[in-house]
Design a protein that fits this description.
By secondary structure, the protein is an alpha/beta fold. About 40% of the residues lie in helices and about 25% in strands. The chain has two domains: about 5-220 and about 315-385, Rossmann fold, CATH 3.40.50; about 230-295, Alpha-Beta Plaits (2-Layer Sandwich), CATH 3.30.70.100. It is built from 15 helices and 14 strands. The strands form three sheets. Strands 6-7-8-3-9-10 form a six-stranded mixed beta sheet, sandwiched between helices. Helix 3 (about 95-105) crosses helix 13 (about 345-360), helix 13 packs antiparallel against helix 14 and helix 13 packs across helix 15 (about 375-385). The two termini are about 45 Å apart. It binds adenosine-5'-diphosphate and magnesium ion.
Amino acid sequence: MSYSIEAEGLIKRFGKITALAGADFAARTGTVFGLLGPNGAGKTTAVRILATLLRPDGGRASVGGYDVSRDAHRVRQLIGLTGQYASVDDGLTGFNNLLMIGRLLGLPRREARIRAKELLIRFQLFDAADRPAKTYSGGMRRRLDLAASLVGRPQVLFLDEPTTGLDPNSRSDVWTMIRGLVADGVTILLTTQYLEEADHLTHDIAVIDHGQVIATGTPDELKARTGGQVLEVLPDDRARLGEVAGILMSLTGNAADSDVVAGRVTVPVADAAALPEVVRRLDAAGIILAGFALRKTSLDEVFLALTGHRAEENPDVPGDRDPADGRASVSAASAGATTSGAATSGAATSGAATAGATTAGGPTADAVADAAAPWLEAVSKAGRNSP
Ligand SMILES: Nc1ncnc2c1ncn2[C@@H]1O[C@H](COP(=O)(O)OP(=O)(O)O)[C@@H](O)[C@H]1O
Ligand SMILES: [Mg+2]
């Protein structure tokens, strides 16, 4: 089995903050690898290191067999990157965005035009090709962003929260595109806060929390860790939720989760054979049931079991350092600092240097500008000035 991405003991500190605390993971060639974790877990930091935009303070990483520190140039030739925040140039049309990246990558003009058209068709943007990107909807921008990261035909693609903030339709479009890319043999590292997304798209998952990988496995393996099944019980009288939880815990030996709003108690169960006894005990206690169901464990529950907190709420992160982070609206995400962008050498350029140019202050924008290594800026300027 070969791995297109390998990270060993990655460490990255920002002042007193340890963003990565010795993260280990590896992505098999030709698969979708999911880096799953809440806001602030270290996902973007890991991606930026792998995309050669940031140097680790410790550990090592390789992409396509090349060390990201020693062979950064080779790595850049293999990769594409779609940042967490849309990286397209607002003032340019969809077509010109892609054309510019193709030219930055050194494609002859004719070839760059062909490639741009191909991608616009593939991403259902052909009709909007001549409109400035600023008139695009959030879903269209994200598609353009994805297209931009593919101009250089990367072997390895980093998608940093590609669907955060998208409406369900646009999200499912992105999912379809990701599946298509994997079918073409591209290796994809996808970061996500959406457990459902990792479940649907990824072959392997590393769950990351506080800069460390706390679990790895296939979606099914991770689900199996909490027994594989969950029993949901809804008492007719919500006042009796606590009692129900007590009974479920004593019979299963697992911690039960009471959701007061939903009026529901859930508990992992390893063996469905315990269910008749559960029913008997609830009946003996005179608890009338409004609902009783056995279902597969969701990744959300897996996360809770692994970390002790839910993926969507991370009490340890003191506020969002970027307004576009997490579940911000699409427009906020798009208007925010333009991150790394498409990173196939020159392509990374466009994004990162655009970020430098549009930096609006704030730590993320600074960090991004910081990440735009001199080579990025230089290439980008060249690209911008070219006709
Ligand atoms: N440039 C930076 N300066 C200071 N702190 C940072 C910087 N980049 C990331 N961090 C911090 O590192 C941690 C991990 O951040 P990040 O990798 O962006 O997480 P994620 O992408 O999982 O939300 C967070 O606590 C974040 O605030
Ligand atoms: Mg992030």
